[in-house]
Sequence to fold (363 residues):
Amino acid sequence: MAKQAVEHVRRLRGGAQSHLLRCDDGYYYVVKFKNNPQGVRILANEMLAGKLARTLGLPVPEPEVVEVSEWLVEHTPEMYFQLGAERIRCASGFQFGSRFPCDPLRTPVYDFLPDALLPAVANRDSFLGILVFDKWTCNCDSRQSVFHRASEINSYGYVASMIDQGFCFNANEWNFPDSPLRGLYSRLSVYEKVVGLDSFEPFLSRLEHLTEDFLEEAAASVPPEWYEGKTEELRALIASLDERRTKVARLIRACRQSARKNLIPDGPCPLFCDVGESDCYCVLDSRFCAFKNLCSHFHQPNQLLDSINRFFQRFNMDLFHCTLPFGSGGQIRRSRASTAAFTLSGIACMYVLTVRFGEACRS
Fold:
């Protein structure tokens, strides 16, 4: 049964230009409208993905159908979409609603926490589960989450909620163009305790034990108008999801083995990989380029990395300690890298510095 929207609270940021509404059950919902700028299938994706994610035990807000009356739209000037210089009124009828994780008028909600506060997140392991889910559904958007303090958690603790599933199944396309780095949360420290695929349990096992009947049941909860009544395409989507359940472990391995950025490497840091004392690798112009035998010019393999870090410190560039999963033999190894190294200018400086070090050592 659809929830009835009774009050408009405010407009929200984002590509779908959602609105925060209060419904007749007393809860607040982030509502995406059928005529949102991203397309009507975004609503179908949100409903289907929300149902599936909650079945895996992930902290995804309760997905609901929210009925918005014509009267509420007509009497609320703020209910519109901004498309360039044009304003378009929100549609009435059945819309998608994601229940707000707390009372937005009383409890602060944050869309970002620094690394220093992430250990205070009570359900931090859910970031591993949502990676499993995003790989399965081919979420083509960056992973979004919000944090709030729950009453049952101590005053210093936070709870994470995984939001915005609209670009699962490749948004309106309903296909699966897998890419190794999709699904990763931007703060890599949430993966610091990962030592292998076992760290992604019980989510991998729950996914593999889902039945096609349950997938069809979840699909039946999506109003046909949200996918333009194209039932055959929905059935094909469900069949693809059923087939992909056993492929997620391989997709997670591919994430580690990505040659583009190597953000979850077998080695010590996202930029350099110690595959041997004589090898040092660097990401240059989105390509994984090898500088073979460079470290052999130094008495200690870490000398090059330390020198580069000191170079960036001279320009007050931010350095961080990066803990990365999948260490060989179950070990988690640590190293340092510069966030500036992920910019083209930073990489170019490192390349020049590397070449000069090599020339100096050979002379």
Remarks:
- The longest strand covers residues 3-11.
